[in-house]
Design a protein that fits this description.
Elements lengths: L2 H48 L11 E4 L2 E5 L4 E3 L1 H15 L5 E7 L5 E7 L15 E4 L1 E7 L9 H33 L5 E3 L2 E4 L4 E4 L2 E4 L2 H12 L4 E3 H8 L10 H12 L6 E6 L3 E6 L2
Antiparallel strand pairs: 1-2, 2-7, 3-6, 4-5, 4-7, 8-9, 9-10, 10-11, 12-14, 13-14
Helix pairs in contact: 1-2, 1-3, 4-6
Length: about 290
């Protein structure tokens, strides 16, 4: 395989990988958004239950921006920070959400933050202040921001799938090229060659072959040689040669015949068994001495 082909296949693999990653990332973000809304509704429900409230509504969860959400309540409630931390953690873990987030309890009256904390999966890096200090009964909005965006990686299955796809493309290209080469070889392999001494004449391809050497011939040279080969060791009259090669095509020549005979002599000079003999006043003869 050529270097260019390797670059092409590598580029295709990278392109497919990028397209797959963007597609999967978009799906992952959508999935996270839906899970976050469900988890936050559950948090709101559990908070109301801790207030002995099983009838008032948890209002719709709002997406404020990417990975940032808020939930509010129909009625006033009090919030125990330790209980809030526990409820949020359990709900997010059950939903399979990130363990790296910030939670804020915001007062409806003045939009001030009444309580907030940062959670990380490592306990020593979490910040949870004011534990045990209950927030009085009031109107609150719970705001959550996930600090760790979903990441993607190539699983073994996906990696093998891409390798399989690349291998399939390479195999198809190999088979296509092999068939192309076979067709090219078939089309270019000389057929119906005629032996002339140590040469082989292929009229359709306008060439002679001697060992591994190919000699291109002009159209006139081919036509003259074909006439001589049809009557080896026989004198062919000048008027017959000129008529078939030139005059039948509406071309009248002077010394063209002699010029082309001279060219043929030079072409066959490497084989002493072949000669073009001038029969004075009559014509020419191709002599082949086997």
């Amino acid at each position: 395989m050529t270097r260019n082909r390797i670059l092409i296949y590598g580029g295709l693999l990278i392109l497919f990988s990028i397209l797959w990653l963007f597609s999967d990332l978009a799906n992952k973000e959508k999935e996270v958004s839906e899970l976050a809304k469900i988890a936050l509704r559950n948090v709101g429900h559990q908070l109301l239950l801790t207030n002995q409230d099983s009838t008032s509504l948890v209002l719709p969860v709002l997406k404020l921006e990417e990975f940032k959400y808020s939930v509010s309540f129909q009625n006033r409630l009090s919030i125990e920070p330790d209980s809030l931390v526990s409820i949020v953690k359990q709900s997010f873990q059950k939903a399979g959400l990130s363990e790296y987030y910030i939670v804020k309890v915001i007062q409806c009256l003045d939009n001030e933050v009444a309580f907030s904390y940062k959670m990380r999966n490592e306990k020593d890096k979490s910040i949870i202040p004011c534990g045990g200090r209950s927030l009085p009964n009031s109107c609150y909005t719970l705001e959550t921001q996930f600090l760790e965006k979903p990441t993607l990686f190539f699983s073994k299955r996906n990696f093998l799938s891409f390798l399989g796809l690349l291998g399939f493309i390479i195999i198809l290209d190999f088979l296509a090229n092999r068939n192309k080469k076979q067709r090219t070889t078939s089309n270019t392999t000389p057929q119906n060659g005629t032996s002339i001494g140590s040469y082989t004449f292929y009229q359709e391809q306008n060439k002679l072959v001697k060992d591994a050497l190919e000699i291109s011939l002009s159209q006139k040279e081919c036509e003259l040689l074909a006439i001589f080969i049809s009557k080896p060791n026989h004198v062919i009259r000048r008027n017959e040669l000129t008529k078939k090669v030139w005059e039948d095509k509406g071309v009248i020549v002077g010394r063209s015949l002699d010029t082309y005979i001279s060219k043929l002599r030079k072409i066959f000079k490497a084989d002493n068994s072949i000669s073009f003999t001038n029969v004075h006043g009559v014509g020419y003869k191709l002599e082949i001495n086997n």
